[in-house]
Amino acid sequence: MALNHAAKGLVLLLVTASVLAIGQAKTIVVGGTEGWRYGFNYTDWAIQNTPFYIEDKLVFKYDPPSDTNSLAYGVYKLPNLDSYLSCNFSSAEVLANSTQGVGNGFEVSLNEWKPYYFASYGVDANHCNDGHMKFFAVPWPHNN
Ligand SMILES: *[C@@H]1O[C@H](CO)[C@@H](O)[C@H](O)[C@H]1NC(C)=O
Ligand SMILES: *[C@@H]1O[C@H](CO)[C@@H](O)[C@H](O)[C@H]1NC(C)=O
Ligand SMILES: *[C@@H]1O[C@H](CO)[C@@H](O)[C@H](O)[C@H]1NC(C)=O
Q1: Which whole-number Å values give the CA distances from 33 to 5, 18, 136, in the listed order?
Q2: Is position 96 within any domain?
Q3: What CATH number is given to the structural domain containing 42?
Q4: Could you tell me the residue range of the domain that residue 42 belongs to?
Q5: Residue 46 three-state SS
Q6: Is residue 33 included in any domain, yes or no?
Q7: 43 Cα to the center of ligand 2, angstroms
Q8: How far is 141 from 144, CA to CA, in rounded Å?
Q9: Gap from CA of 48 to ligand 1 centroid (Å)
Q10: Does 77 fall in a domain?
Q11: 98 lines ligand 3 (CB under 6 A)
Q12: C-beta 44 within 6 A of ligand 1
């Protein structure tokens, strides 16, 4: 009986520890070594890199437009789930233009406990619709 209680306590502790942040805020490069580009599945990436925590920083790294790459990536924040699902940019906020992700990348701090909807636009939202360049992150509060 006592052991059973202890075991339950341990499970609860482990679950709690995995949900509440322990330690330092992280800096996470979106897409890892792939960076921010057309054709990589960022929904999948976000699922695999969950959970995020408040004060974590996401870094978007992407190539600038060039003669061989006319894609003009950018980082937009979409206002809500509907606009995210339908890639509707009419009320989107531009976070980073086509050159701000070059080099060290463009950093976004996840400061609030709310969903952040990210996407790239391209031409007629093709980056978002066809290029899979969208994901959302809900940062969890810290434990301390
Ligand atoms: C991207 O990944 C998500 C989550 O794993 C999956 O549901 C979706 O089908 C993938 N999209 C494509 C186009 O492969
Ligand atoms: C896109 O979102 C705006 C509000 O942000 C809305 O007025 C408009 O109807 C939406 N467009 C479509 C095609 O859903
Ligand atoms: C992108 O934004 C930066 C910083 O505001 C600015 O210096 C740069 O000229 C912009 N680049 C383009 C292509 O608009």
Answers
A1: 44, 25, 19
A2: yes
A3: 2.60.40.420
A4: 5-14+24-137
A5: helix
A6: yes
A7: 22
A8: 9
A9: 12
A10: yes
A11: yes
A12: yes
How far apart are the CA of 97 and the centre of ligand 3, in A? 6
* 20 and 141 Cβ atoms separated by less than 8 Å: yes
What is the count of structural domains for the chain? 1
67: which residues sit within 8 A by CB, 6+ positions away?
none
Residue nearest to atom 11 of ligand 2 (CA): 88
Q: Name the residue with the closest Cα to ligand 2, atom 13.
A: 88
Check pocket membership of 16 for ligand 2, CB cut-off 6 A: no
Q: Which residues pair with 28 in a beta bridge?
A: 58
Tens digit of pLDDT at every position of the chain (144 positions): 455 555 554 444 444 545 554 568 899 999 999 999 999 999 999 999 999 999 999 999 999 988 776 789 999 999 999 999 999 999 999 999 999 999 999 999 999 999 999 999 999 999 999 999 999 999 999 765
- Residue 98 domain-assigned? yes
